[in-house]
Write a structure and sequence with these properties.
single chain; alpha+beta; Uridine Diphospho-n-acetylenolpyruvylglucosamine Reductase, domain 2; 5-stranded antiparallel sheet; about 25% helix; binds flavin-adenine dinucleotide; binds uridine-diphosphate-2(N-acetylglucosaminyl) butyric acid
Length: about 350
């Protein structure tokens, strides 16, 4: 097993933060990982499993071993008249996998087009966009317990998926390497076009008949116009999660901020509203941060929720800005916003 020393993580994180890792190993197969588990340098150091590095902010050098997952492979494992079960290895690039599904006319992931990163990280925070979350088509995942090397399967309910949450971010944090994910995709699409600008964009694209590809293309078009491309401007997408507040907190908030966008949350379609989601981007913009540059970092000019690295920012610089933004939102609105990005 080739364990490299003192490796720059600059090419491995979309924030483009120049930090180094004491040790670094790339694993291409499960056998590589079994071998790595027996290495003293692995056993005696803290570990970080890395995918595409698109949801991570490195605030300092990593004093441990970074394990870059490069498992590849996509295969159909089961089918019936309604569904096709597709297994994708953790190191597959997420968007390429979504395109593979669209090309095969398999529905369910098209609204999640163009999200950066790898398949293995998708269940970590139950990635979501445009009215769909990974949990909606997730069947199961295979993981390897880092402490024992044992293989464990997690079914949908066992992952305890929530809004940008799963067991892997909470009670099982840093305990498993996700090796593959199996999705149950629909042969007969149930299009989800009610969210945001999808319908309008489909009209602009002059789409007369809905198709899986047309929805995917509309999502790609919207995302490309709103979100900065990490290859051009370092970022990790939404820095914070959208805060969820109780009905009582919401009444007080909306009486003071009647124009605030808000989304009622129903536990099930017919149940009463108990909570509301408030867009953190709006709260941050109202605090005057949108488009503001602070040193080498700042809040993006067309999406306040995205913090960016204008070049040469340190992770700590971005983190300090995040703390300032968090404080100003709390002071102005009495609402706490929490990071979505994993701080390392
Ligand atoms: P990484 O950043 O490498 O890792 C994220 C976390 O997962 C870390 O804790 C890491 O240790 C862990 N991890 C990664 N792989 C494994 C594995 N195989 N086993 C165990 N642990 C692992 N997210 C959304 O939900 N919706 C969006 O719309 C969205 N838009 C984005 C837009 C942009 C421009 C960017 C830059 C990011 C966006 N994101 C979005 C965030 C990000 O793309 C996702 O969270 C993505 O799933 C992260 O994948 P990754 O492979 O880059 O994970
Ligand atoms: N808004 C503002 N100012 C801003 C940004 C947004 O007022 O600068 C308002 C918008 O006008 C709109 C609302 O906030 O009314 C929501 O904005 P948008 O549709 O852009 O979505 P978001 O809530 O900011 C979320 C996800 C994104 C996901 C999009 C689309 C979170 C934290 N973010 O963003 O996910 O792509 O919806 O579904 O839930 C990510 O997780 O990294 C990510 C990019």
């Amino acid at each position: 097993m080739n364990i490299q020393q003192n490796i720059s993580l600059l090419p491995y994180n979309t924030f483009h933060i120049a930090v180094a890792s004491k040790y670094f190993a790339e694993i291409k197969t499960e056998n590589d990982f079994s071998e790595l588990l027996r290495e003293e340098k692995f056993q005696s150091n803290q570990k970080l499993i890395l995918g595409g590095g698109s949801n991570i902010l490195f605030t300092k050098n990593f004093d441990g071993i970074v394990v870059k997952n490069s498992f590849t492979g996509i295969s159909v494992v089961k089918e019936d008249e309604n569904y096709v079960w597709v297994k994708a290895s953790a190191g597959e690039v997420w968007h390429q996998f979504v395109l593979w599904c669209i090309e095969k006319n398999l529905a369910g992931l098209e609204n999640l087009s163009l999200i950066p990163g790898q398949v293995g990280a998708a269940p970590m925070q139950n990635i979501g966009a445009y009215g769909v979350e990974v949990k909606d088509v997730f069947d199961k995942l295979e993981a390897i317990e880092i402490a024992t090397g044992e293989k464990v399967n997690f079914k949908n309910a066992e992952c305890e998926f929530g809004y940008r949450e799963s067991v892997f971010k909470n009670k099982f944090k840093n305990q498993f390497l996700i090796s593959s994910v199996t999705f149950r995709l629909n042969r007969i699409p149930k299009f989800n076009v009610n969210y945001g600008d999808i319908k309008m964009t489909l009209d602009e694209m002059r789409v007369n008949e809905l198709s899986i590809k047309a929805v995917g293309d509309a999502v790609i078009k919207i995302r490309s116009s709103k979100l900065p491309d990490p290859n051009v401007l370092g970022n990790a997408g939404s820095f914070f999660k959208n805060p969820v507040i109780t009905k009582e907190e919401f009444y007080l908030f909306i009486s003071k901020n009647p124009i605030a966008p808000n989304y009622p949350i129903h536990q099930s379609p017919n149940s009463p509203i108990k909570q509301y989601k408030i867009p953190a981007g709006w709260l941050i913009e109202q605090c005057g941060w949108k488009g503001k540059m602070v040193g080498h970092t700042g809040s993006h000019k067309s999406q306040a929720l995205v913090l960016v690295n204008y070049g040469g920012a340190t992770g700590n610089e971005v983190y300090q800005l995040a703390l300032e933004i968090q404080k100003s939102v709390l002071d102005k609105f009495g609402i706490t916003i929490s990071p979505e990005v994993n701080l390392v």
